[in-house]
Design brief:
The chain has two domains: 1-71, Multidrug-efflux Transporter Regulator, Chain: A, Domain 2 (Orthogonal Bundle), CATH 1.10.1660.10; 75-121. It contains five helices and no strands. With 121 residues, the chain is an all-alpha fold. The protein starts with a helix and ends with a helix.
């Protein structure tokens, strides 16, 4: 699959895909004899993982480290586990903060609605 096809499939710019590869967020993509990127199913799996990790808020450095660990020959299970666990903790804290913010907004909105009802009577 060409970079153009992958770009369309995942709705991300071709430059972003090149950046992911350059930054180590996905392993190097196979090339045709002419040097054109030729994404295999395995490459697409890495792209999907990268997109998932980015949407979960993992920094570029962490994603690149995770990919590096996955590609090592020795067992890196513990380090990969720790990396993902830490990101999960971070996401849960962000979720808690968002919940507090939503509660505060809901209270303000309720007050406005109450005041507007009083004004129309």
């Amino acid at each position: 699959m060409t970079i153009k096809e992958v770009s369309r499939r995942y709705q991300i710019p071709e430059d972003t895909l090149r950046y992911y590869e350059r930054a180590g967020m996905i392993p190097p993509v196979g090339r045709t004899p002419g040097g054109i990127r030729n994404y295999s199913q395995e490459d697409l799996n890495w792209v999907e993982l990268c997109l998932c990790m980015r949407s979960a808020g993992l920094p570029v450095v962490s994603i690149a480290r995770y990919v590096q660990l996955c590609r090592m020959e020795e067992d890196t299970t513990q380090e990969r586990y720790a990396l993902l666990l830490e990101q999960r903790r971070t996401l849960l804290e962000q979720q808690r903060q968002i919940g507090e913010t939503l509660d505060r907004l809901d209270k303000k909105i309720a007050r406005y609605e109450e005041n507007m009802k009083k004004e129309t009577k």
